[in-house]
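Chapter summary example.
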Amino acid sequence: MVELRTRRPDGGTISGNVYRIPRVFRFLCVGAVASLLQLALLYVIQLSGIPKLLANFFAFEISTQVNFGLSYLITWYDRTPERPTLRYLIGRLLGFNGMAITTLIINMSVFALMLMYVHFMIAGALAILAAATTNFIVSSRIIFRRRKGFSRGAPGGGLSRWPF
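The structure predicted for these 164 residues follows.
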C-alpha cells in the first residue's frame, strides 16, 4: 500500500502552501473555477430548450454555491474561525448569497445587453467579469472580513496582506 505524504520534508504541510499564494490570485483561481462551471452549466442547460436568460440564472445560482465553498476553503480561509459553528457557516452562506443577488443583477444585466451583440457564451463570460469586482470587494469587506480574535490570522506572503 502506498503511503501518501501530507507533510513536506521540512515539516510544513503541503496544503499550507496554498495560503502563501497572494489572496488576489486565489480569488482569481476560485473565480475561474466557478466561472467555467457557470459557462458549462449555461451551455448544458440551454441545450434542454430552456431560454438562455433562464439558463444563465440557473447556471449562476449553482456556481454561486460552489463559489462560496471554494471561497470559504481557499480564498478567505484565514479569516474563518478554527472551529466554525453551524450558525457561523449559515451566516456566511446567507451573506454570500445576499451579495450574490447584487452580482446576479449585474450579471444578468450585462448578459441581456451583450446577448444582443455577441454569441451567448461570450455574453456569459462578459457578465461574469462584470460581477467579479463587486464579489471580491463585498466578500473582503463584509462577508469574510477580518474579525479580531476570531480569524485564523493573516497568511504569509506579500500581496496576501494587501488591504483585502
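To summarize the output: The chain has four helices and no strands.
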